């Protein structure tokens, strides 16, 4: 996610969510994915090809239109931004209409992108953030979603003597997930306080919660100075979605910015090594394209960028798994 955008203040309006919105819809993980969408005789992939709508941020497209465009481009999963959903609801839209649109387009709602200072060292700030997150979880549930992003905000530096405290804070919002049916995914940011996969894993394990899980990103794992060689130590079955992008050889990893992310296959990420490791570790979730590249925004319209995002991602995943029997 964008380090700049993440600091935006979330809309404080409280939304009343009808209990009826929680009924009757469960997203399934179609591991043998028809990843070329509506094309006939399309080859199957064991992961979904999805889109994080950050990729469309520049075009200011209403969330209901985003859903239709993403499906038409061939994607079978989507990550929506809570800020876009709230704008839609504030303007008179209904959560059940978005849910119906997701269903009619056969899109898996991979995750909702929201921001909350649930990990703050300030107890009062943390309490307000947890209340805010509960509201956003209810909205997510009304759309039929099962996951919401939970980047570690509210602290600037991770104190490694406080793993237990961080685990307690994460466990507190996991319990919100038990109430709402929406699991918060602790998210690693390459330039943030939580930028090491090992730290992320330790916090997740320390919660002792059966649904504790993390949200990884190819760019952020690299940006945080992590080693890809041990990524398959993780249980891939517990990773519902991974943000998909590529990164250039220069500048060095510690100098990269969010806007440096490029389409899969246009950078130097060793997908041919990493994706098979993730597959062997059990990952069968969604690879969700997440970009903030101004160069693309200035040279492509939204449909063209969606087309390239889908086709390049499919090609990268297909090539990486070419020797894998699935």
List the helices and strands and how they pair.
Blueprint: E1 48-52, H1 63-72, E2 77-81, H2 82-90, H3 95-104, E3 108-113, H4 123-142, E4 147-151, H5 163-180, E5 183-187, H6 197-207, E6 214-217, H7 218-223, E7 241-244, H8 271-280, E8 286-289, H9 294-299, H10 302-320
Parallel strand pairs: 1-2, 1-8, 2-3, 4-5, 5-6, 6-7, 7-8
Helix pairs in contact: 4-5, 5-6, 8-10
In short:
The protein is an alpha/beta fold and 326 residues long.
Polypeptide structure, described:
The protein has 326 residues and is an alpha/beta fold. Helix content is 37%, strand content 12%. The chain contains ten helices and eight strands. Strands 3-2-1-8-7-6-5-4 form an eight-stranded parallel sheet. Strand 1, helix 1 and strand 2 (77-81) form a beta-alpha-beta unit. The longest helix is centred in the middle third of the chain and has 20 residues, at 123-142. The protein starts with 47 loop residues before the first strand and ends in a 6-residue tail after the last helix.
């Amino acid at each position: 996610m964008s380090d700049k955008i993440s600091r935006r203040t979330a809309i404080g309006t409280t939304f009343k969510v009808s209990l009826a919105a929680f009924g009757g819809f469960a997203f399934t993980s179609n591991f043998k994915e028809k990843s070329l969408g509506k094309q006939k005789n399309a080859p199957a992939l064991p992961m979904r090809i999805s889109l994080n709508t950050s990729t469309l941020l520049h075009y200011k497209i209403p969330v209901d239109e985003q859903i239709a465009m993403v499906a038409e481009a061939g994607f079978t999963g989507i990550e929506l931004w809570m800020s876009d959903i709230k704008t839609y609801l504030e303007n008179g839209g209904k959560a059940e209409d978005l849910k119906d649109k997701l269903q009619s387009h056969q899109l898996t709602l991979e995750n909702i992108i929201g921001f909350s200072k649930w990990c703050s060292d300030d107890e009062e700030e943390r309490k307000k953030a947890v209340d805010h997150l509960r509201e956003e979880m209810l909205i997510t549930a009304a759309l039929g979603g099962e996951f919401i992003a939970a980047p570690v905000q509210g602290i600037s530096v991770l104190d490694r003597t406080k793993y237990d405290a961080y685990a307690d804070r994460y466990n507190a919002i996991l319990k919100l997930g038990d109430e709402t049916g929406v699991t918060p995914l602790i998210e690693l940011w390459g330039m943030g306080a939580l930028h090491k996969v090992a730290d992320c894993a330790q916090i997740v394990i320390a919660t002792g919660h059966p649904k504790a899980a993390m949200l990884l990103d190819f760019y952020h794992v690299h940006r945080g100075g992590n080693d890809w060689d041990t990524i398959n130590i993780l249980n891939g079955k517990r990773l519902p979605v991974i943000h998909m992008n590529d990164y250039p050889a220069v500048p060095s990893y510690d100098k990269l910015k969010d806007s440096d992310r490029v389409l899969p296959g246009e950078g130097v990420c060793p997908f041919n090594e990493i994706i098979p490791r993730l597959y062997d570790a059990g990952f069968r979730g969604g690879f969700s394209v997440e970009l903030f590249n101004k160069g693309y925004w200035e040279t492509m319209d939204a449909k063209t960028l969606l087309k390239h995002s889908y086709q390049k991602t499919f090609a990268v995943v297909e090539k990486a798994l070419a020797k894998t029997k699935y």
